[in-house]
Specification:
CATH superfamily of the largest domain: Naphthalene 1,2-dioxygenase Alpha Subunit, Chain A, domain 1
Number of helices: 10
Shape: globular
Structural class: alpha+beta
Number of strands: 18
Order of helices and strands: HHHHEEEEEEEEEEHEEHHHEEEEEEHH
CATH topology of the largest domain: Naphthalene 1,2-dioxygenase Alpha Subunit, Chain A, domain 1
Largest sheet: 8 strands, antiparallel
Number of domains: 2
Helix content: 10-25%
Radius of gyration: 22 Å
Oligomer: single chain
Distance between the termini: 14 Å
Mean pLDDT: 93
CATH architecture of the largest domain: Alpha-Beta Complex
């Protein structure tokens, strides 16, 4: 596995380079050929959110998932065997490439291809194929379904389809340690508050906007009323970062237990970004997962999925008007996308106090591409 070079590792906290560095060259956002490179070097080699595991809880569950539809477009299958072991398998038959499972099913004993009846155990091993009695050297290891690395954190699935740039523990370990007090398995999906957004801007522009608090008082008047921006803090991690939002005195905040490292502080939100395209936003009411998916050279889909912990707190505080905040964010990144095409714009500078997260993002891109 690769890791950021020594120079990058030494810059996980703010340092003088932020004050003199310039942002990425605009070809990264505008050159259509760059999208294929980003897809293979960034998205295929990082831990991607595969959704929650509520529908894959029982033995015999088969749950088809498509990883990053519009970008990676990889058909995958969550399979839980009779012993309760959960696996992530390829959902493509190893005979002629047919998709195996089209809809979630429960109580399955095997996986059977509907094209030529090739059959697999729930662990992916091929066990039957008609009319292959005379085939030599059959079955071979390649006839079994490929199995992918899969991790479950708090009922959420994460997978990588390539050699990852860092281990799951290296990426998510700091988050799990900081939030160990949160009972994530008690969070329940809220389909009514979950939706997808699409807009015309490069995916990285959306991430950059998320990674800095500089724009908040100018773009988000409603959110600004809930936060004490003077106490807004950034913490850079090896493969992620945290924006720690503090609530104003009369606004909604977490009731943090003594075992929380932040006990005694009025935290309105833990805004976690995970390289390269995932946001995990923890509010007093629960969790908003935002997965950023490039579906074209300059078009992005953001998947919002809500998981409720304390429903009586929904609608208040920093996490109370997410649709409005999203509309405000989309409007500004779309205008930036248009502005990048200007022959007079080259690239900008970073704010040393408010854009270290953007700088960190760009350095991580440079370390893996």
């Amino acid at each position: 596995m690769n890791a950021p070079d020594a120079a990058v590792q030494n810059r996980w906290q703010v340092h003088p380079e932020v004050a003199r560095a310039e942002t990425l060259d605009k070809a990264f956002y505008l050159d259509p050929a760059a999208q294929a490179q980003q897809r293979e070097q960034l998205f295929a080699r990082t831990w991607q959110w595969l959704g929650d595991l509520a529908d894959a809880a029982a033995p015999g569950a088969l749950v088809p998932r498509e990883l990053l539809a519009g970008c990676l477009d990889e058909p995958l299958l969550l399979s839980r065997d009779a012993a309760g072991a959960l696996r992530c398998l390829s959902n493509v038959c190893t005979h002629r490439g047919n998709l195996l499972v089209h809809e979630t099913c429960q109580g399955a004993k095997q996986i059977r291809c509907g094209y030529h009846s090739r059959r697999f155990e729930l662990d992916g091993r091929m066990i039957f194929m008609p009319e292959f009695q005379k085939a030599l050297d059959f079955p071979r290891p390649c006839d079994h379904l490929p199995q992918l690395p899969l991790h479950d954190w708090g009922g959420q699935a994460f997978v990588t389809i390539g050699e990852p740039v860092a281990s799951f523990d290296e990426v998510f370990g700091p988050l799990r340690e900081r939030l160990a007090w949160l009972p994530l398995h008690e969070f329940k999906p809220d389909p009514a508050a979950s939706r997808d957004y699409e807009f015309d801007a490069h995916w990285a522009l959306y991430c950059e906007n998320y990674l800095e608090g500089l724009h908040i008082p100018f773009v988000h008047p409603g959110l600004t009323q809930t936060l004490d921006l003077a106490q807004y803090r950034y913490e850079l991690l090896p493969w992620a970062n945290l924006q720690l939002a503090v609530a104003k005195p009369d606004e909604l905040a977490f009731e943090l237990p003594p075992e929380s490292p932040d006990h005694g502080r009025r935290i309105a939100a833990f805004y976690y970004w995970v390289f390269p395209n995932l946001m995990l936003n923890f509010y007093p009411w629960g969790l908003s997962v935002n997965q950023v998916v490039p579906v074209g050279p300059t078009r992005t889909r953001v998947r919002f999925r809500s998981y409720v912990w304390k429903p009586e707190l929904q609608g208040g505080g920093a996490g109370g008007a997410l649709d409005q905040v999203e509309m405000e964010d989309e409007a500004v990144v779309m205008t930036v996308q248009r502005g990048l095409r200007s022959r007079f714009y080259r690239h900008g500078r970073y704010s040393p106090t408010r854009e270290e997260g953007v700088h960190h993002f760009h350095r991580l891109i440079g370390s893996v591409m």
